[in-house]
Amino acid sequence: MVVYLLEKSRLTYQQPLERCYHSFYNIMSDQVPDLKEKCLLSNNILDYWYVSQGKITVPTIDDKEDMMFADEAFDVLGFTETEKYDVYKNTACMMHMGNMTKDFVPVGKEEQAEIKDDTNAKKVANLAGIDPEWMVNYFCKPKLKVGAEWVTKGSTCAAASNSVAGIARAVYERTFRIIVDKCNETLIDPTMKKVQYIGVLDIAGFEIFDYNGFEQICINYVNEKLQQFFNQHMFTLEQEEYVREGLDWANVDFGMDLQKCIDMFEKP
Questions:
Q1: pLDDT tens sequence across 10-35
Q2: CA torsion angle 78 127 48 35 (round to 10)
Q3: In DSSP terms, which residues pair with 146 in a beta bridge?
Q4: What spatial distance separates the first Cα and last Cα of the chain, rounded to whole Å?
Q5: Strands 143-146 and 112-115
Q6: What whole-number distance in Å separates Cα of residue 100 and Cα of residue 124?
Q7: For 52, which DSSP code?
Q8: What's the mean per-residue pLDDT of the chain?
């Protein structure tokens, strides 16, 4: 498996009709008895701001059943107990990081960010296996390289919260890629010649929301480029070949052509 494009923005923000990634609701389902205790989680999904800004339930999704399948899949794919729980802990860590963004308070005339109540920070650090004081210090007073020297700069509350959000999205991506790497390690026999390839394409194309950030534009652009490639090779060229061969064929309409949008994005 190869990861080309991974959406991460929904981790830290959802619109009213959106749901965050299903894994967060799965681990809250009580399917794995000791999971919440090990991940320092409460019993209420609404306690975690990052994953409760939009919809928290979907009528057609059974989170308890999905968690059962996911937990079994980890075992089948050769994850050790430690590796499996590390994935769960990383998932919970991101939930606690959302709460941590609310803990920064402005101090002094320059309103530099500090954390007075470090309860959430300690949970994040515990799950991540790092020192909480060191972590908070780097969010509140990051080091910048100026010339050949490193200097410490105080962050505002907004800047510190954005830093936490950025790290949370990075943790999400790295955890996702670790799972993919482990799946490949289990499923691929390096001695076998690769003779087949399965490509999975999300052909939805553009998604238009009430609020569309820069990352959504990037996602839409890449999705549409992929869709145009797919349309060209699977429909247009194939159908042209059928016509040349004189086959009795009714052309397939593959939907709206948004090439003009791509051209607009690619203008210098």
A1: 899 888 888 999 999 999 999 999 99
A2: 50
A3: 149
A4: 34
A5: unpaired
A6: 8
A7: S
A8: 88
